[in-house]
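User: Could you walk me through two proteins back to back? I'd like the raw sequence and the structure tokens for each, with a short line separating them so I can tell where one ends and the next begins.

Assistant: Of course. Protein one, sequence then structure:
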Amino acid sequence: MNPLEFIGPALANVFTLYNIGIIFIGLFIGVIVGCTPGLNVTMGVILMLPLTFGMESAASAIILLMAVYCGGVYGGSISAILLNMPGTVASIATTFDGYPLAKKGQAKKALNTALFGSVFGGIYSSIILLIFATVIAQFVGGFASPEYFALGVMGIMLVAGVSGNSLAKSVIGALIGVFIATIGFDMVANVQRFTFGSTTLRFGIDMVPTMIALIALTQILLKATEFTITKGHMGNVTEIGEHGLSRKEAKSIVPACIRSSTIASLVGAAPGIGGCVTQFLCYNEARRASKKPEEFGKGSLEGLAAAEASSNSVAGASLIPLLTLGIPGDGVTALLLGAFVLHGMQPGPAMFANHGVTAYSIMIGKLVTAFMLIIIGLLFTRLVARIVKVRYSYLTPVIVMFCFAGAFAATGHIKEVTIAAGMLILSYILNVLKISAIPLMLGMILTPIMERNFITGMLAHGNDITIFVRRPVALGILILTVVLTWSLLRVNRKVMAMQEAAARENTDKSTSSPTEAEG
């Protein structure tokens, strides 16, 4: 198979008025869906899927859905920055620095940084996809259950990087997430676990209503409380501002973007790991490598850029296992797999031989989508972001409606609305106890990956638990996990020490001021 014989026809296929138009439309729809609290990228792709049936080619259909995907990932950063409500799971880490920047009156700079990181990550991963798709897929394709279990362990240990001032509370949160993830049917014995006879819990707790309750609805509750206490004078972001990202600042975040895009492109090519896990990995690595780790969580441009670059890099990297192995890399690419089948094609090892032009059209279309995101971001971000200027008493009912509609749309069952309400109560209790919801979500996301691959690995190797350290790659991942965890704990201690020193300095200044005034 010679790639050069497919690239020419693929370029001619992509650069038509029709396909450029659907990329533009897909990106715009994706941004709207992604930035609307209660909606998500998966819902946007599902809603657009029926519209692809009448399209002229399978390539055009997949390109449209990919544009919705990429636009939705960026759109999630808008609500994350302006409302502290991530529009997608993969935008959670964006809130760490995006919202503090917006609260400081630097919303435009935060949005520009998110756009820069998103475009950088999208272009980077698209080039990786075009050049190294087969090589990376062969490497990741050699992974077995022990390697995927080791990656899950690495992900769960990232709780050390998001633990804040209390590692113990973060561990408690992660363990609560592990427990919640085990509710429902056991994947091996097919028996119910922790359902307590409830039909609502029989099939487990879905991630979508949980995310909506833990993040969006909780923020609404806290904002409503703040609105009541301050009698409408809230410290919310109401203006975008005029000062964007300067050229000097853009240059300073390039290393973080390169590092995050590289990590996300490699990890994102592994099926089932997900954008959320990859974003936390990249965010923590950026924090570890930064010369100013104390700024992370308070409005760091590096942290924001790293989070956004990783999210869009995963969107491109997740196509690698889909196109070359026929294995979806995440939930959205699982829908893309269904779209392929509906259009009469089966992605996999024979994809490039049997449908080479289509495969390269999709990959080139992904690259064009990343470039066109610049236009969409610059033209429409301010328009979409006007949601923050709406009076909160008017905005709250609309957001709540979208939140519960999104929870219901996850499976189409009313039980998801009940679960969202129950999770909201749990989230409020955790907030009172100052236990972050982020480790809980990490535990929920990673537990199925770890459990499935642990059981599969044990069954495939005669219940020999040493298989997880006897395979070189799995052992290497576990060793890297220990090193990263130790490094992140050191960074946390360093940041806490710097914060305590700053607090003491502020206290000394406040106590010395009256004396100086008297003198």
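----
Protein two, same layout:
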Amino acid sequence: MRNGENMEISRKKLMAIVGIVLVAAMAISAFSSLTTFVPSSVTMRADPALDISLVTFEDCGCTIPFTSYDWDGVVEGEYYECAVYVKNTGTIGLLITYLPTDLWFLGDEAHFVIHCWVIEFGLPCELYTLDPPVQLPEKDPLNCTSGFFLPPGKVMKVDIVLFVDRIVVGQVYTWTFTFWGKIPCEEVRPAKLTLDKFNDLNGNGIYDAGDVKISGWRIDVRDPHNLTTTYFTPTSLGITEFGTYTVTEDRPSDWVQTAVQVDGVYKTPPTAEVIIDINEGETHSVLYGNKVAPRPAGLVIEKFNDTNGNGVYDEGIDVMISDWKIDVTDPDGVTRTFFTPISLIGILKFGTYTITEDLPSGWVQTAVRVDGSYLLPPTREVKVTIGAGETHDILYGNWVPPPLPAKLIVEKFNDLNSNGVFDGDDVMIVTWEIYVTDPSGVTTTYHTPLSLNITLFGTYIIKENLPLGWEQTAVRVDGVYIVPPTPEVKVIIGAGETRDVLYGNRRPTPPPVGIHLYIRPISVTIPGTVTFSWEIESPPEVTPDYAALYLRDPNGVIIPLANYTVFPPWTGSYAWTSTPPAGSWRVYIVYHYTYLGTAYTVRAYGSFNVKGG
């Protein structure tokens, strides 16, 4: 029971409450057969002898359809209140109707307040809800005009207030009251929206044989109130809020959209966002088609100058060639021209490509390397099949063939018979100097025999260096003797030619030189004396250099005795005292001289015997 102040306020409301009860009763009849009733009761025992006044709020709730509560010590003219819990145990929702008159708060909860005035004992008390509690957010989804929606299995809490007018002591009074609800808006038919995705394996933009559905992929739906909700495929939505819906697929970064089918019709081009107007009772469907995004391919084409012509790219030796034309024909037969070096990145058209190089005049192909392997023989046209994610490289090798090398051969021979012809009696002369002046005027010294590779074509001048004491007897150019011979000749050398020059020289024979050697005695004991005497017969055109006298003992040891550098006299003698070892000894006289710049040597020797003493 509330305190006196609150009870007085409640009494002031009684007449207004009675009017409310009458209005509510009129509303009940309008529900007719659509009304569902939930019976409840409150039982009170009149026992003034106990004179019990409730000073605290009492809950009389339970969660079964029929709710009852007993109060002892009922006092006439008092107000009593009780919290009643009503549960919907049916299978369909109930629309609880009410007249909004009162709503009170306890803490952060809002409660219905139902007033009933007990006029006579045993009189049924019809209770009417006055306002829904805030903590029951369920509203009628079908926009019914009043009340709140109580779904199956849900419980609502209602506070009731009873006023007792007359009682009989010892009597037990049970007041029966009824909640009634309307089956929610049967005339409204919900709509349906299904959302699905498929893997378009063949990428043809149609859900057909071989394609498979994709589950667990996100789709966002924005309703007519601009509220967006996320769902995951496959999903089927019951729609009760009618209007314009926006459906948007979420697509992973490595996938692309290939199709969207709305109500069985494909949209061209497909879009990730679809707008649908949904009305009562309609069925709509959205089917997205996706496929794995193809990984782009690449094609790299280059050219190099095969400087050594070996058909292989030698790093550090060969060099790349830029701005040379390459034609590329794609799988559709479309040809485009590029210039080296070429790097085609992001190819999404897969199939066979034909690559053809353009070869300028004067150049020849030496190599073609496809994906690291050289093709033998090389071809100017190359076909490669390019698939998703692949990178192919083509390297062409070209070069300008050098002109056929020319050669210059220069030799000398000793014309021993002085006949001016190289014949069987003659011999070649090596290491003699030859001077060669090329077409640019540069003179280089070489030595015979000379075999010179020529790459600079034109007129060459060849000149021999004739040592002192020698004279020229012949010169032959390309097999033809020039008469009279000249030390300097000119030859014109072109690509692929071989020119040969042959000089003939001779050295005049020196005049005869005579040496006489005398030994006295030819046998001597140790110690003893041997006298060596010599005489040189040298013509005046010979230049003497020196004469040397030496011995060789029986063991082969050389023993110098004297050198003579002053001429004349042309004679001399030397007395030698014999020494061991005993045996056969030799004595030599050697004469060195020069004739026409050439050094000559003549010698004479004799033997003698040395005996032991």
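The longest helix spans residues 14-29.

Let me know if you want the two compared in more detail.
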